[in-house]
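testing teh design pipeline on a random one, pls ignore if ur not involved
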């Protein structure tokens, strides 16, 4: 019997609570979700929205990615709280540093992925997380980046040019009614990355409330193009409803 995949539907996966260790001595709370069997075809490292405005590893697109993508697309999902950020899983050590010391947090996630032989690592940033991706994420391990609602608040033209020079794929997902950067301006600003793909999403706002499925389809279509999208909206097999307690940082 098919089950409708809803916001709190958690599909089968191997899930492990993890701790990331930064070069400046902090421990960060995280989770790795792997396909139930076999090797993942690709890996997402999720960099969450601004923690001072409620962003964390449980921000809804990332929670749904971890709940669904290991089963629906054989994709590993690594999500974590940057320094000073709290979620139901706990609070990471340290304090928010406006995207500066968070470079150690990004590096710690990449080090974890490399040490654990996670394949085809992609950074997926959302809002503040897109700035972390663009400023701190251009690493040899990284295959490319997906940017959800990028405000380009801390990212400089030099950061964009560096990604352009790298040749690594970049896909920017831009809501029609974004609070910070809308599709036409995004196309102009991302022209500094010649290989960047900029996709506008109609009737969508910065937080993607009610439209998370479109973001997940675009992520999967970018990093695992051999997986059919749109992803299934129903599931034949075991599942559970997992209500997550939202914690304010």
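output:
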């Amino acid at each position: 019997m098919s089950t409708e995949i809803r916001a709190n539907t958690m599909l089968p996966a191997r899930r492990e609570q993890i701790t990331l260790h930064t070069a400046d001595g902090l421990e960060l709370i995280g989770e790795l979700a792997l396909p139930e069997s076999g090797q993942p075809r690709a890996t997402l490292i999720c960099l969450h929205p601004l923690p001072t405005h409620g962003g964390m590893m449980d921000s809804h697109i990332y929670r749904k990615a971890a709940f669904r993508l290991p089963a629906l697309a054989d994709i590993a999902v690594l999500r974590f709280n940057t320094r000073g950020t709290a979620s139901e899983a706990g609070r990471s050590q340290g304090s928010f540093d406006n995207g500066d010391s968070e470079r150690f947090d990004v590096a710690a996630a990449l080090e974890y992925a490399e040490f654990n032989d996670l394949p085809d690592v992609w950074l997926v940033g959302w809002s503040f997380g897109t700035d972390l991706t663009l400023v701190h994420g251009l690493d040899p391990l990284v295959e490319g980046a997906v940017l959800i609602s990028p405000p380009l608040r801390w990212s400089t033209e030099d950061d964009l040019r560096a990604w352009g020079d790298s040749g690594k794929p970049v896909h920017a997902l831009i809501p029609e009614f974004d609070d910070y950067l809308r599709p036409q301006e995004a196309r102009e600003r991302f022209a500094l990355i010649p290989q960047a793909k900029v996709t506008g999403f109609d009737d969508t706002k910065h937080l993607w409330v009610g439209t998370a499925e479109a973001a997940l389809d675009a992520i999967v279509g970018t990093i695992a193009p051999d997986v059919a999208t749109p992803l299934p909206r129903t599931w034949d097999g075991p599942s559970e409803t997992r209500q997550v307690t939202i914690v304010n940082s």
